[in-house]
Amino acid sequence: MAKRDIISVLDMKDDMPELVDLAIKLKKERGHHGDPLKGKTLAMIFEKPSTRTRISFDVAISELGGHALYIEATKMQMGHGETVEDTAHVMSRFVHGIMYRAFNYKVMDRLGENASVPVISGLDDLEHPCQALADMVTIKEKKGGFRGKKLVYLGDGNNVCNSLLYACAIMGMDMVACCPATRMPNAEIMLNASRIADANGSKIIASHEPKEACKDADVLYTDTWISMGDDTPLEEAVRIFHDYQINSELLSIAKPDCIVMHCLPAHRGQEITAEVMDGPQSVVFDEAENRLHAQKAVLYTVMKD
Hints:
The chain is an alpha/beta fold.
């Protein structure tokens, strides 16, 4: 069987509903699903710091019977004389899968193209596919489904926003990317997601008006205003994104049962207020937990015999 990478949300286009359901099933069966990945080793390469990605992948492979190997990118030869291609070939002889948290999606693609074992993105500067899968798991748990539902993303049109565009389009959920004109998501991804959404009976919309966008929202979603590697001064970010903060005023415009999501880490008082994040409509920590179960679904799918 040909190896399968999960580098973009599009790599889950044909079976994302099944992956969501598998994650929910594995969550319910936690501790009682055997060890389907017994003897398997997952190499985890980190160029960026991580809390949720590192812990969730480590625990996920362990609970499925396998083993995780943590590797700091600065402590390996890739990028310090050895090519990405050579690294991919060598690591493929040692391990059964590679999770890579990268600065550059082009390097992620090169690793995937040259590895003979599955490569899973733990985030790069273009997408964050496993986060998007966990988000879809959370929405299905809280809302029961996706059809007729509306997600509004507020803030920086970054990798998380890009992946949500694809995920919502694939699942048939409406999404509004509400971002400042200078910080919109990737234009090609917006176009591709719109085409997928059209085929699935949903809509992808761009907006620069938070109050208008939040009307009838089922989900309000945000992320940090300054991503890792972004050198925008905080004062400038506050000026750009001030109106896009999820606060009680914007939440009151959405549906009464609207849920609030954030991929974390959160900067309370910037992109989201503490009042909302700790409030009854926040599902932020359930969403964080679901990283574990989404990761399990991905690992099981791409690494099982």
